[in-house]
Amino acid sequence: MKPFLLLATRSEDEAADDEYAGFLAAGDLEPDQLHRVRLEAAPMPPIDLNGYSGIIVGGSPFNASDSAEIKSSVQRRVEAELAALLDQVLARDFPFLGACYGVGLLTSHLSGRLDRTWSEEAGPTWISLTEAGAADQLFAALVPTFQAFVGHKEACSELPPGAVLLATGQNCPVQAFRVGNNVYATQFHPELTNAGILTRIRIYRESGYFDPDALDDVIAAIDASIVTEPAKLMKAFVSRFGR
């Protein structure tokens, strides 16, 4: 099988490594089956799509909807590189899964509306499949309603033209959509487990994803949640597109 490619943008080593481990576990992949490139560390190397089964873009401290004036030079470079790659992905309908930051990038790139209307604090939320989601080749692997972990300051508030809504949430109307047949984006994190999000909130406690004074309540909500379905999406992605 050709490897999948994870494009990551977390500058904190622990967070970056935990994210990579999460995608490996969720997709039941070996390290040689998931090639990681940390875009925040260096310019994107040349990427030949023919060498990969699919591309995954994980979460990020970056917000795609921020104005160019407040984005760092690193973020502007990363987003220019990803925009050029997305042009190739969309032109070929190449297998793609963008999670959290990935859904924001795809929304912006395709002229949907990305803003802070439907932000969600870090923790569990309930997700429901739409009729189209229940019939989708990937999302059909999930039960109709399930818990997943989120934590985002921006979200898609208007789908890009031609996008198909696959899942909605109790606090965020667009939790997943598809473009073409093979390009997917989710607001929730398919790679996060209970242990993974506890690591994430510890690292990003002061980054505005929740009230740091409410940490105990956030942890209690996480401990009380049962989050097993999202990983099935990663397994379905790998099963369908691994070649």
Describe the structure.
The protein has about 240 residues and is an alpha/beta fold. It has one domain (about 5-240): 3-Layer(aba) Sandwich (Rossmann fold), CATH 3.40.50.880. The protein has helices at about 15-25, 75-90, 100-110, 130-135, 195-205, 215-225, 230-240, and strands at about 5-10, 35-40, 55, 95-100, 115, 120-130, 145-150, 155-160, 165-170, 175-180, 185. The model has no long low-confidence stretch (mean pLDDT about 95).
Summarize the structure.
The protein has helices spanning 13-27, 73-92, 101-109, 131-135, 194-203, 215-223, 230-241, and strands spanning 4-8, 34-38, 54-57, 96-99, 113-115, 120-129, 145-152, 155-158, 164-169, 176-179, 183-186. It is of the alpha/beta class and 243 residues long.
Quantity of strands, as a count: 11
CATH topology tier name:
Rossmann fold
Instruction: Give the helix/strand class.
Output: alpha/beta
**Share of helix among residues?**
25-40%
Biggest beta sheet attributes: 9 strands, mixed
Radius of gyration: 16 Å
Strand portion, in percent? 15-25%
Q: Kindly report how far apart the N and C termini lie.
A: 5 Å
Oligomeric state of the chains in view: single chain
CATH class term:
Alpha Beta
Average pLDDT works out at 97
Name the CATH superfamily assignment: Class I glutamine amidotransferase (GATase) domain
Strand and helix order: EHEEHEHEEHEEEEEHHH
Low-pLDDT regions: none
Q: Number of helical runs?
A: 7
| Major β-sheet strand ordering | 2-1-3-4-11-10-9-6-7
Number of domains: 1
Instruction: Provide the CATH architecture.
Output: 3-Layer(aba) Sandwich
Shape: globular
